[in-house]
Structures are given as structure tokens and as C-alpha cells.
Amino acid sequence: MKRGFLPVLVTALFFCVRPPLLPAQAADSGGALPESANGEDTAVEGFATETIVITAVAESLKAGASAATARVDADMIAASGAESAADALKLLPGVHLNTNGTRSSIGSVSLRGSRSNQVLILIDGVPMLDPAGSGGYDLSKIPADTIECIETVKGGGSALYGDGAYAGAINIITKSGESGRSGHVRYFFNSQEGHELKGGFSLGSKTVPGLSGHFSASILYNPYDLKIVGGDTITDAVLGYAQWGVSRITGRYEIRYRSFFNETYNVEQIGNRLSSLSQSNTLSWSIGNPGEKCRDYTGQFALNFYNLQWTPAGAGFTDENFSSVLLLKNSASFAASGERWALNASVGGDLKTELLNAYFAGFLHRTTVSPTAAVSVAFSDRRGRPVGVFDAGSRLDVMAGDRTLVFPSVWGGFSFYFDREKRYGVKTSAGNGFRAPTMSELYYSYGSVTAAPDLKAEKAAHLDVSFFFRILDSMELSAGWFYRHETDTVYFDNNTFRNLPAADFNGAEVSFLGAFLLGKDSIVDLNLQYELNYGIYSDGTPFDLNHRHIFRSLLSYRYGEWFSAYVRTDVYSGFADIKPFTDLSAGLMGSYKGFFLELGIKNMLDLELRYHNYTSVVPRSWSCGIGYRAE
């Protein structure tokens, strides 16, 4: 572990030179207390330029200073050449993408060596849960053009988000309407992913201040064959995505409606047919200062639908699963302050109902009630120097269905600042996470897959310690260690689900983010990451991501609005059953008076991924995009 850590740490420190101050960094508050009383971190310039308010019950805790959080914004996503949310996640440390190389293939996400169904995916604060699925969500279908920013919380996040945030959570914040008028359209061709047409526009009302709407959509047609793990060949025929919404924002309140859907139609050569459709509708609201002591009141109502159809070759029937998630969440926050402290507290609750109607399982349901509470306190000394931030939160999930499940979860931590400007310090956090088995794992059996009604919920406890050091406001270096202990992990073995007794995971992360000013308009963004994960089950059961090393780098150059280029590298090694491989991508982007041209190449090396004696070919592909964007 030390041998892998030191070279990367030295490399990161080598790049930590003191560049000229960026224009947006000239002013530094230098106040006695953190900029936000709830301990929110100031983002690194070039990677995040503004604070995005996300509706969540434990909002003050979710963005707390002691959380193991990471964030990337729309500018950095565009500079990296990312085409989907899955590509954008490669910019964040501790995130691993499980994919077959193209966006039209099935993709999933793991955090710090976890399984994908142990990571909760949220879009605009709403959990993307599918009772009929494994608990994961395919992020390769969400176009990068629709993303405002992505945040990750690594470690047990159940006190924040409840069921599913076992090893952490990923929250994707999508773009909303703008006050003016803007639009874009582009055609994109990729030699492995086919033909794609993207477009979108937003409109603002002149007669009603604060009222705006937006619409964006993309459709991908892929006529190419894709080799997947196991040797089967899949042709991904159609993939569609659309999002629309309307919002009204004033000085005191905000109300927003958003809706989006994904549709995929797959055809296998061997005759099996698979199609899926998902749709999410969300209404959110926020009222500022509704009472004398209440700082704000927020809420969300969400209704998600999932439909999956599978027609086995020669079987003579179609297996159709329909599932939905109904969610209602409300919270109120309060603030208080003294001479050397500032406090934020929030209380609220969720009401969630999951429904599943499957061919072999019949109709199943589960309802969860979740009261929550969170507190965050920022401290300063007598001279007004920031000392640190303390965060804590708790949540109780009570699930009722065919059986009753009760899960208490807590989370807390402390951040220490060693200077007045909070440029360097130590963050610590501890908590627990859980994941209730999905209804399909409990009751849905088909063919050689056997469900297990007696499965216990997965539980985990985590500890996280990290050091951060900011150079000016344009660069940040962080290094941390984490430990996660799991019990009753759900494992699929010999076509049957079972619980494993325990597992222990250790890991370390080093990351460096920097923005360098080379001229009046020229900026170079540098992103270096290294992570090491090691896990072992107590009964000797092999773990697929055991002893994993990942090194990532991104170098992008932006010259005003005219020209940008990027080179992105991912190096994987140390897998228990997977050969080491390298993913190298590069691209050029240019624009003039609204017209733009993009050229890129992915997987520049011939790659072959070997996994459990199966071969998955990760194809090299080139792409060309052309379009127009009017502001």
C-alpha cells in the first residue's frame, strides 16, 4: 500500500505550483465562520462555480464539512468530453464504472469497491429505486448535456437518504430553465455507438418574473454489434431520453416540476428480446422564512415508473414486470448563532411506497416511513478564526409489507481547520448504512435463479479520515483513508441468494484538482486521482473487486469560448479476476458564433477485458459531432 501511495503523492505535489490568481478568485471572504453555517465546502474554481440547492430532508448534513463528498460541475463535464453521466462520474475519486465500453451497453456504478446495488442513485434528490431490479441504475443513458452537476457522498449514507445508501450515494442535479432564451441542436456520430441527435431549449417569461421552462431530448440508434461478458452479442437498436420542466422562482419561494424518461430496446442475436422504459415525475417546493424561527421549508413529491419486457427465444411468452415508487418528503430547517458559533438544524420525514407486479411473483408492495433529524454547528475562536464544523444526523426507516423491517441509522463527524482561510485541515466521519433486499431478491424466481424470502438486510459501518490542502482557490490536494465493515451481505451463489456473515474493506484515496491560468482566456484543468481498495469476506468467498488499484488523469485545455481539448486516462490493475487494462481517450472541440464541432476518440488502445474466463471486447471508437447553440 505504501509503495502505491508515495509515487502518486509526490507526483501530485509536483504539480502544486502557485499559478496566477484567477479573476474569479481575487476576493476571499476570510470571515470568522464558514461561508455557510451548515459547513458546506467551497468548491475548487474550475470544477464548481456555484452552490446548487438540492431538496433533501437532511440538507444541512448532506453537504456537511465532515462528509466524504466530491463534486463536479457542468463546465468540467463539458471540458472532459463526457457524453453521459457515466462518463462524467470518472472525474470523481472513489467512483468505479462497470461497463462494456459503450454508452449503449449496460452500465453500473460502485463506490470504494462496493457492489452497484449498494450505491443509491438520485436525480434531483429523488432516489431512482426499482423494486424489480438489483437496486442499481444505468447512468449511461443520461446525456451529459442535461447535467448541472454531480455530487457523491462516500461511506454509509443511510442517515441522509435511507435504504440503498449502503456504501454511499450519487446525486445528479439536472439543468433547469433559464431566465432568457437559449437552445441547441447537434448531430453526433460514433463508430461504435451509432447515430445520435440531441437538442434542447429553455424559455423565460417576460410578463411573469422568475417563470421559466426547458426541454431537452436525445435519441440514439446503434446498428453495431457489441460483445458482452459471456460471449453473447447484442445489437442496441434504440435508446431515447427526454426531459422537460417548468419552475417559478421568487425571492421567497421556489416551485419546480420536472419529468424525464428513458427507453431502451435491445435485440440479442440468439433471439431473446429485451425492452425497458422508465419515467420519473417530480414536484418540489421551497419556502424561505415561513415562520419566525423557521429558516425554510422544503418538500418533494415524486412518482417513478419502471416497465421491463423480456421475451426468451422460443419460449412463447413475454415476461413483463411493472414497478413504481411513490415518494413524499418534507423538511424544515432552523438556524441559531452565538458569539463564536452558528447552528443549523433540520427535521423532516419521508413516506415511500414501492409496488411490483411481476409475471412469476404477482403483486407485491412495501411502504416505508422515515423520520429524520440533522444538526450542524460551526465554531470559531476568540479572534474569529474558524475552528471547525460538527455534523450529526439520525434516521429511522420502518418498512411494512409482507414483513416489517426496522433500521436505525446515524452519521456524524468533525472537521478541523488549521488556518483562518480554511485552506487546510482534517475531516473525519463515521456512520452506518443498510440496504433492504429488493422484492425481486426476496420473492421473484425464474429459471435457474432462486429467490430467498429469509434474506436479512445488508448492514455496514464506516470510518473516514482525510486531509485537504488548498493552494490559492484554484487547486486542492486531498488524501484519505476509509474502513468499512459489512454484515449480512447479500451474495448470489450457485443460483441462490444468501447472506454472507461479514466482510472488511480498507482503502485509500489521493486526488488533486487544479485550474491554471495561462493567459487572458486560457485555462488548463488538471485532475489526478489514485485509489486503492482491498476487501475480504470472512468465510473466504471471493470478491470480484478485491485488491483494486485505479489511477485516473484528465488534462483539458480551454481557450475562451473558441477552442478546447482534452486527454483522459484510466488505468485499472490489481483485480482478483480481471486483467489490468488502460482506457485512453482524447478529443478536440471548437466553436464560432454558436456553431460548434467536436472530434473525439475513445479506447485508443486495443483492449481486452478478461473476467471469470469470459472475454469482453472494449472497442476503439471515433466520433464527430456538429451543431448550433443559440443564447
Can you characterise this structure?
With 631 residues, the chain is mostly beta strands. It has helices at residues 2-14, 59-62, 74-79, 85-89, 158-161, 439-443; strands at 69-73, 95-98, 108-111, 120-123, 126-127, 147-154, 168-174, 182-190, 194-204, 211-221, 225-227, 233-249, 253-268, 273-288, 294-311, 319-337, 341-358, 362-380, 386-400, 405-417, 424-435, 458-471, 475-493, 496-517, 522-537, 548-559, 563-573, 581-592, 595-602, 607-611, 614-618, 621-630. The strands form 4 sheets. It has a 22-stranded antiparallel beta barrel. A hairpin with a 3-residue loop joins strand 22 and strand 23 (475-493). The N and C termini lie far apart (50 Å). The model is unreliable at 1-63 and 609-616 (pLDDT under 50).
